[in-house]
Write a structure and sequence with these properties.
5-stranded antiparallel sheet; disordered N terminus; 20% strand; 4-stranded antiparallel sheet; Immunoglobulin-like; 2 domains; 480 residues
Length: 480
C-alpha cells in the first residue's frame, strides 16, 4: 500500500494546453521512466540465482530426459495422452490436474501468509527471465551508470554494435525458450529434426514464435510494467498479508533522520539515524520503488534492497538489518528474531498447512492406488436386440479399454446380472502399451430368461495379472 507522500511524487498533474478559444488538449498518461536496476550481491541475490538455475535446468532439461523409449514429460494433445515420468494420464484423469492446481493455489496462499511475495521475488517466470535478460544486458552494456550513459549518448557505431549484440542474444534465448516450450507438446527430438529440415508444422511455428515474442517483450522491455500493471497478484496480495507476515521492511525508528555523514560521525551528536540516504536501495530495486516509504504493492519481495543496505552498513561499521525481512509487529514491538519466527505458526498458517498436507496426501494416495487402465462400455444403439440362430437374445456393445501401463496388457472380459448371460465373442483382449483399443462384444441370454424391458448388467474387466479389476455398468434390452 503506497503512502500518500510516495504517490505524490509519482503523479504528473494533468496539463491543459489551449489550442484556441474552444479547444484544449488534456494529457491523461504519465510517461513511464525507464528503470536501470543496479547489480547487487548478497545472501538474497545468491538464493535468487540458485532458484533461477534450478527452474531453468528443469525447464530446458526435462524435455530431453527419456523414460524408457519415450520422452519423460510429454503432453501429447493429438493422442490425448499425458506422460509424466512413469505416469500415463488420459483426459478422464482431469481430476488430477484439478488437484495439482488447487495444491499450487494453496501453496501460494501459504507462502504469501508466511513471507509475502516469495513467488514473485524468486520463482515467477517474469522475475526469472527478467534477471536473465538483465544479466545479458550488464555483460554487454555494463552496469547501471554505463547503460544510462549509453542510452543518453548520440548514435554511433559502438552504440549500434552493443544494442545489436544485446538484442541478438535476447532473441536467440527467446527462440530457444519458445522451442523448448513446444517441446513439451511435440517430442523435442522430432522438433529438432523438423527444424533442421525446415519442416515445422504451422502450429509448431506459431507457438515457438508466440512464446518467444512473449519472452522477448516481457523480459526485455516490459519487465516491471508486468508486475505493476498486468499481474493481478500484486492487487490482491494484501488480502493474504497480516501484521505477522514477513516482508521486506525499512526500520524507520533506527534509520531516521537520514542524511549523509562520514564514517567517524557521532550519530547522537549529529542527530542522525543509520540511513545515509545513498539511494542505493532505490537503484537496485527492479520495480524502482523506495522501500523507505513503506510497503507498496509494487514490491516483489526480492530482497535486493536488503542486500545493498547491508553492504553499506558493513562499510560504515553499523549493524546490519536496517532493511530486512521482518514483520510489522516485530518492528513496532522490537521483537527478537526468535520472537518473530514464533509468530509464524499462527492459526491461518496452520489451517493452510493442514489443508495443503491433506490434499497432497490424498492426491499421492489416489495416484498410488490408481488402476492402470480405464474402461468405457457403450451399448450399440444402431443395432437392435435380436434373436440368434440358437434361439438366444442378443445385444451388441462397444467397449473401449485404455491401457495406461508402459507394457502390453491382456484383459479378461466377463458379464453378469442375468441368469445365463454370457459373452459369445472373444473374452480376452490385448492392448498395446499406453494405447486405447475398441472391441465389439456380442452378449447373449437364453430366450425368456428375463422379462421384456431394460435390465441392469455388469461387465467385469480383469488385468490377467489379477491385481486390477474394473466394473462397468450397462443395460440389456429384452424386446416385447
Amino acid at each position: 500500500m503506497t503512502t500518500d507522500n510516495n504517490l505524490a511524487h509519482k503523479i504528473i498533474p494533468i496539463q491543459a494546453v489551449a489550442q484556441d478559444d474552444n479547444e484544449e488538449m488534456v494529457s491523461l498518461y504519465a510517461a513511464a521512466k525507464k528503470i536501470y536496476p543496479r547489480s547487487v550481491q548478497g545472501i538474497f541475490a545468491y538464493w535468487r540465482w540458485v532458484v533461477v538455475a534450478i527452474t531453468q535446468i528443469m525447464f530446458y532439461g526435462l524435455p530431453w530426459l527419456e523414460w524408457g523409449t519415450r520422452q519423460a514429460v510429454l503432453f501429447d494433445l493429438e493422442a490425448r495422452r499425458f506422460y509424466i515420468l512413469g505416469l500415463v494420464l488420459y483426459p478422464q484423469d482431469f481430476i488430477y490436474l484439478t488437484g495439482l492446481l488447487v495444491i499450487a493455489a494453496l501453496s501460494l496462499f501459504l507462502f504469501t501468509a508466511v513471507a509475502g511475495r516469495l513467488w514473485c521475488g524468486y520463482a515467477c517466470p517474469q522475475t526469472v527471465y527478467s534477471e536473465i535478460f538483465l544479466w545479458i544486458e550488464r555483460k554487454i552494456e555494463g552496469d547501471r551508470s554505463a547503460r544510462m550513459r549509453l542510452d543518453d549518448a548520440s548514435f554511433s557505431v559502438k552504440k549500434l554494435a552493443k544494442k545489436t549484440y544485446k538484442h541478438a542474444a535476447w532473441i536467440v534465448l527467446s527462440l530457444w525458450t519458445g522451442f523448448t516450450f513446444v517441446g513439451y507438446f511435440t517430442p523435442i527430438r522430432e522438433l529438432v529434426v523438423s527444424a533442421m529440415g525446415l519442416q515445422f508444422g504451422p502450429w509448431e511455428i506459431f507457438w515457438v514464435f508466440f512464446y518467444a515474442f512473449a519472452t522477448y517483450g516481457n523480459a526485455g522491455f516490459m519487465r516491471e510494467q508486468v508486475c505493476k500493471y498486468m499481474c493481478p497478484y500484486a492487487r490482491f496480495q494484501s488480502a493474504m498479508f497480516d501484521h505477522d507476515t514477513l516482508i521486506v521492511t525499512y526500520d524507520e525508528a533506527r534509520g531516521e533522520p537520514r542524511g549523509p555523514r562520514s564514517k567517524k560521525t557521532d550519530l547522537v551528536a549529529a542527530n542522525l539515524g543509520s540511513c545515509v540516504d545513498c539511494s542505493l536501495c532505490v537503484q537496485v530495486c527492479p520495480t524502482g520503488i523506495d522501500i523507505r516509504n513503506g510497503l507498496q504493492y509494487e514490491c516483489i519481495g526480492c530482497g535486493a534492497c536488503a542486500d545493498v543496505c547491508d553492504t553499506v552498513m558493513d562499510k560504515l561499521g553499523y549493524a546490519k538489518g536496517l532493511v530486512r525481512y521482518t514483520t510489522q509487529n516485530a518492528v513496532n514491538n522490537k521483537w527478537t528474531l526468535k520472537q518473530t519466527l514464533m509468530r509464524v505458526a499462527r492459526p491461518r498458517v496452520l489451517v493452510y498447512t493442514s489443508i495443503l498436507m491433506a490434499l497432497v496426501i490424498a492426491l499421492g494416495t489416489s495416484l498410488a492406488m490408481r488402476t492402470p487402465f480405464r474402461v468405457d462400455v457403450v451399448r450399440d444403439r444402431a443395432t437392435l436386440a435380436r434373436i440368434t440362430e440358437n434361439g438366444a437374445l442378443e445385444n451388441i456393445y462397444r467397449l473401449q479399454i485404455m491401457n495406461a501401463a508402459e507394457v502390453d496388457k491382456t484383459y479378461a472380459l466377463s458379464v453378469n446380472g442375468i441368469n445365463g448371460i454370457e459373452i459369445v465373442t472373444d473374452t480376452q483382449v490385448k492392448v498395446a502399451a499406453a494405447q486405447a483399443h475398441w472391441v465389439v462384444l456380442r452378449v447373449d441370454i437364453p430366450y425368456e430368461a428375463a422379462e421384456a424391458g431394460s435390465h441392469k448388467i455388469n461387465f467385469e474387466i480383469k488385468d490377467t495379472s489379477g491385481k486390477y479389476v474394473v466394473h462397468e455398468k450397462s443395460v440389456f434390452l429384452v424386446p416385447r
